[in-house]
Design a protein that fits this description.
By secondary structure, this protein is mainly α. Helix content is 73%, strand content 0%. Keywords: Membrane, Transmembrane, Transmembrane helix.
Length: 112
């Protein structure tokens, strides 16, 4: 059983898999920074790219994209007071006030 667990970690920590997950993260941040595009929509938009990928590559790509969208919803909420996702509505109140007082970078770091 421990050998199977070790093999699973070895497969997940492969540099190609980690790289594709980071690529998905960047794609998710790009899509999620657009106001109104939710994580569900981003995964639906990016899912066709995974049709030609192996399962071990496609799932980390979509997971990275999902996590990127969840973070990126706070970017327009902080900078232009328009929540990118419904979950970023509370971030718009506090984060935009920080951005107007010249602390936008700090607000984005806190939301990360």
């Amino acid at each position: 059983m421990l050998a199977d667990l070790a093999m699973g970690f070895q497969m997940i920590l492969d540099p190609v898999v980690v790289g594709v997950a980071l690529l998905g993260l960047l794609a998710g941040i790009f899509v999620g920074a657009l106001p109104g595009l939710t994580a569900t929509m981003a995964v639906a938009v990016l899912a066709p790219f995974t049709f030609v990928m192996d399962t071990l590559i496609g799932l980390p790509f979509l997971l990275g994209a999902y996590k990127g969208v969840i973070y990126a919803g706070s970017i327009p909420a902080i900078l232009i007071n328009t929540p990118g996702t419904a979950a970023a509505a509370a971030t718009a109140a506090d984060g935009n006030a920080m951005a107007r007082s010249g602390r936008a970078r700090e607000a984005l770091e806190i939301s990360l």
